[in-house]
C-alpha cells in the first residue's frame, strides 16, 4: 500500500515550493514577454492593414487622377484638332481669296490690254481709211478731222 513517509511530504512540499517560486520568478516575466510579443505582432498586423488601406486609397486616387489626365488629354487633343481644322479652313479661304484676287486682276489687266489693243486698232484703221479715202479722192484730207470721223464710223460698226 501506500507509504506516507516524510519523504513524500517533503517531496510534495518541494514541488509546491518550486511551483510557487517558479510562478513568481518565471511566470510573470514569461507572460509579460509573451504579451509584449503578442502586442508587437498585433501592432505589425495593424500597421500592415493600415499600410494596405493607405496603398489602396493611393491606388484609387492615382486611378482617378489618371482618368482626369486622360480626360484632359482628350480635351486638349480635341481642341488642337479643332484649332488645326480652323487654321486649315482659314488657310484654304485665304488661298481661295488670293486666287480670286489674282483672277480678277488678270481679267482687269486683260480688259485693259484688250481696250488698248482696240484703241490702237481703231487708230490704225482710221489712218488707213483716211489714206485710202485720200487716194481715192486724189487729194490729201486733213487727217485730224477725218480720223475723228473714221473713229466714229468704226465705233458705230463695233456696236452693231
Can you give a write-up of this model?
The chain is built from two helices and no strands. The chain has 160 residues and is mainly alpha-helical. The longest helix is centred in the middle third of the chain and has 132 residues, at 6-137. The protein is rod-shaped and about 190 Å long.
Strand content: under 5%
Count of discrete alpha- or pi-helical segments spanning 4 or more residues: 2
Main pleated sheet: none
Low-confidence segments, given as residue ranges, are: none
Instruction: Please state the average pLDDT score.
Output: 85
Coarse structural class: mainly alpha
Order of helices and strands: HH
Instruction: Using the CA coordinates, give the radius of gyration.
Output: 61 Å
Shape: rod-shaped
Keywords:
mainly alpha, 93% helix, single chain, 0% strand, 160 residues
Describe the protein's topology:
Layout: H1 6-137, H2 143-159
Helix pairs in contact: 1-2
Please give a quick description of this structure.
Helix content is 93%, strand content 0%. It has two helices and no strands.
Amino acid at each position: 500500500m501506500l507509504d506516507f513517509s516524510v519523504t513524500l511530504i517533503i517531496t510534495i512540499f518541494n514541488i509546491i515550493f518550486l511551483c510557487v517560486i517558479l510562478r513568481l520568478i518565471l511566470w510573470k516575466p514569461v507572460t509579460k514577454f509573451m504579451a509584449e510579443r503578442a502586442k508587437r505582432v498585433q501592432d505589425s498586423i495593424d500597421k500592415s492593414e493600415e499600410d494596405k488601406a493607405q496603398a489602396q486609397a493611393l491606388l484609387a486616387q492615382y486611378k482617378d487622377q489618371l482618368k482626369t489626365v486622360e480626360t484632359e488629354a482628350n480635351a486638349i487633343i480635341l481642341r488642337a484638332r479643332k484649332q488645326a481644322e480652323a487654321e486649315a479652313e482659314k488657310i484654304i479661304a485665304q488661298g481661295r481669296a488670293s486666287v480670286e484676287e489674282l483672277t480678277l486682276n488678270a481679267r482687269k489687266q486683260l480688259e485693259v490690254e484688250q481696250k488698248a489693243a482696240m484703241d490702237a486698232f481703231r487708230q490704225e484703221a482710221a489712218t488707213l481709211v483716211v489714206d485710202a479715202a485720200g487716194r481715192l479722192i486724189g487729194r490729201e484730207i486733213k487727217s485730224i478731222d477725218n480720223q475723228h470721223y473714221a473713229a466714229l464710223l468704226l465705233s458705230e460698226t463695233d456696236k452693231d
